[in-house]
Write a structure and sequence with these properties.
Catalytic activity (chain B): L-glutamyl-tRNA(Gln) + L-glutamine + ATP + H2O = L-glutaminyl-tRNA(Gln) + L-glutamate + ADP + phosphate + H(+); L-aspartyl-tRNA(Asn) + L-glutamine + ATP + H2O = L-asparaginyl-tRNA(Asn) + L-glutamate + ADP + phosphate + 2 H(+)
Number of helices of chain B: 3
CATH architecture of one domain in chain B: Orthogonal Bundle
Radius of gyration of chain B: 23 Å
Low-confidence stretches of chain A: none
CATH class of the largest domain in chain A: Alpha Beta
Strand content of chain A: 5-15%
Subunit structure (chain B): Heterotrimer of A, B and C subunits.
Pfam families (chain B): GatC (PF02686)
Family (chain B): Belongs to the GatC family.
Largest sheet of chain A: 11 strands, mixed
Low-confidence stretches of chain B: none
Protein name (chain B): Aspartyl/glutamyl-tRNA(Asn/Gln) amidotransferase subunit C
CATH class of one domain in chain B: Mainly Alpha
Mean pLDDT of chain A: 97
CATH topology of the largest domain in chain A: Amidase signature (AS) enzymes
Strand order of the largest sheet of chain B: 1-2
CATH topology of one domain in chain B: Histone, subunit A
Shape of chain A: globular
Shape of chain B: flat
Oligomer: heterodimer
CATH superfamily of one domain in chain B: Glu-tRNAGln amidotransferase C subunit, N-terminal domain
């Protein structure tokens, strides 16, 4: 059962070759014994009856902790939401379960409120990388990446604000997609930076990505920024890249990227040429400023979004004699170090006298980065880069240096600022550890990205089973 | 370098009662991050419009139809201290 992709399992369940309850129970037992601390909650039983008329019937889904799941702990990796059980479920969760027929297998570990690139900032302990348990799985959706890489779930969902799906997918040798901003409803996703947060998928292969995405997209009256996609998500079929123009931005494919990662990247560019693509160097002149703009915009929005955690309506409270002391002490005791750091940074950037110099300027840089991509897509179908500048790093190696940690997002943040879709596919190994290849396209080009990703996936021929076999 | 007075001022705005060690640590860490962020000060942004929302959405309206809201018991179920159909909090204090 373990070697089946989610699509293969779904097909076998519907044709009657595979028993839905047996398949779910197989993964439930693996999840319950997960050795990587990838789960913070696992279903304690397999449903007695599974309606096999629905497309994802019997196929378990693992969901990042920050998605609200009614009556089931949704703690966003934070102590301030310890044992919080929301009164409703996120739209994307309902679409996958109630509508598509999937059953919730577990909630996955993450950096607190999705702030981090290593899943070490969780109040529930770090998640380990299934390829090497002395290393991080990336983050912030590290639990959702580790469950797929370690085969304790056939697929999972996460969120990506500046790289939180693509970077952990790269570091664990799986496929991770961040769709166009607005493709999937954010309703019921515990907010970090609302203008950047987007739900997306973790799967073993590109075909599963298309299938999972197809069930999640759609406009939602509960999220006024949601649009869905202009056409249904298709299962990709391409086996060539004939006529496809790939642009390689010099700013994101040279300085700062580890040698082994670059080598794998360049080898795949050669494969792309053999598949019929043209590959040319291009420029995103403002992309190097993406990180600075991101680390103003995201903390500013986070400082506002996280103002709601005050010990009054839900979650953790530190009892105190006055209301103000209760607020101050609840937040001090309930938030971890990185979350406090970002709240402080964001509050500073928005404070009187600094707004124009920081937040205002960052929003203008965002305009320039979006314009850079627009210009590039005049000449190219896709922009391709390494997903992360390095392979999975050792636990605790970057926790004391926030800036070194932030540099992990160097290649993924520009696409987030521009709101465009991007996928990371496994691109072989460097030093025995997985690296990722990122393909970004214009807004709403998911179907074309999936086709290109499928053609490359076949040519690369990566075998992820080493991590769980 | 952020002074401890500046750190304490921001912490007050953010409703965080930081420990003395945190005040010192955040001063150093935030200064280092701000040094990097200030690189965008080199860009000429005079005629650039700011972007707050990247994907154009115009007039995202829904029908103005009443629908049931969350029942009170459900809304209070996760409250640290619920009383008389509401959220009980400490007194704002006389000071």
């Amino acid at each position: 059962m373990i070697e089946l992709t989610a699509k293969q399992a779904a097909d076998a369940i519907r044709s009657g070759e595979l028993d839905a309850a047996e398949y779910f129970e197989f993964y439930r037992q693996r999840a319950a014994k997960d050795p990587y601390n990838s789960y913070v909650w696992v279903a304690d039983e397999t449903p007695a009856e599974i309606d096999t008329s629905k497309p994802f019937a019997g196929v378990p889904i693992a969901i990042k902790d920050l998605f609200c799941t009614e009556g089931i702990p949704s703690q966003a990796g934070s102590k301030i939401l310890e044992d919080y059980r929301p009164p409703y479920s996120a739209t994307s969760v309902k679409k996958l379960t109630t509508e598509a027929g999937s059953t919730l297998l577990g909630k996955t570990n993450q950096d607190e409120f999705a702030m981090g690139s290593s899943t070490e900032n969780s109040a529930y302990g770090p998640t380990l990388n299934p390829w090497d348990t002395t290393r991080v799985p990336g983050g912030s959706s590290g639990g959702s990446a580790a469950v797929v890489a370690g085969a304790t779930a056939p697929w999972s969902i996460g969120t990506d604000t500046g790289g939180s799906i693509r970077q952990p997918a790269a570091l664990t040798g799986i496929v991770g997609l961040k769709p166009t901003y607005g493709a999937i409803s954010r309703y019921g996703m515990i907010a970090f930076a609302s203008s950047l947060d987007q739900a997306g998928t973790f799967t073993r292969d590109v075909t599963d990505t298309a299938m999972l995405l197809s069930a999640m997209v759609g406009a939602d009256p509960c999220d006024q920024t949601s649009l869905g996609l202009p056409e249904p998500v298709r299962l990709p079929t391409a086996d060539s890249l004939k006529g496809i123009r790939l642009g390689v931005p010099e700013e994101l494919s040279g300085e700062g990227i580890e040698e082994g990662v670059l080598k794998a990247f360049n080898e795949t560019l050669e494969l792309a040429k053999q598949l019929g693509a043209t590959v040319e160097t291009t420029h995103l002149p403002h992309a190097p400023h993406g990180l600075a703009a991101y680390y103003l915009i995201a903390p500013a929005e986070c400082s506002s979004n996280l103002a709601r955690y005050d010990g009054v309506r839900f979650g953790f409270r530190k009892q105190a004699d006055t209301l103000l002391d209760m607020y101050n002490q609840t937040r001090e005791a309930g938030f971890g170090a990185e979350v406090k750091r970002r709240i402080m940074l964001g509050t500073y950037a928005l404070s009187s006298g600094y707004y124009d110099a920081y937040y205002g300027r960052a929003q203008k840089v965002r305009t320039l980065i979006a314009q850079d991509f627009k210009n590039a897509f005049g000449d190219f179908d896709f922009i391709v880069t390494p997903t992360a500048p390095g392979v999975a790093f050792e636990l605790n190696s970057k926790t004391s240096d926030p800036l070194a940690m932030y540099l992990n997002d160097f290649c993924t943040v520009p696409m987030s600022l521009a709101g465009i879709p991007a996928i990371s596919i496994p691109n072989g190994l460097s030093e025995g550890l997985p690296v990722g290849f990122q393909i970004a396209g214009p807004a709403f080009s998911e179907n074309r990205i999936l086709d290109a990703a499928l053609a490359l996936e076949k040519a690369i021929g990566f075998d992820g089973s080493k991590a769980y076999a | 370098m952020l002074s401890s007075d500046q750190v304490l001022h921001v912490a007050r705005l953010a409703r965080l009662e930081l420990t003395p060690e945190e005040v010192e640590r955040f001063g150093g860490e935030l200064s280092k991050v701000l040094d990097h962020i200030e690189l965008i000060g080199q860009l000429d942004l005079e005629d650039v419009q700011p972007t707050s929302h990247v994907i154009d959405v115009e007039n995202a309206l829904r029908a103005d139809v009443p629908r049931p809201s969350l029942p009170v018991e459900k809304a209070l179920a996760s409250a640290p201290d619920a009383a008389d159909g509401g959220f009980r909090v400490p007194s704002p204090g006389a000071s």
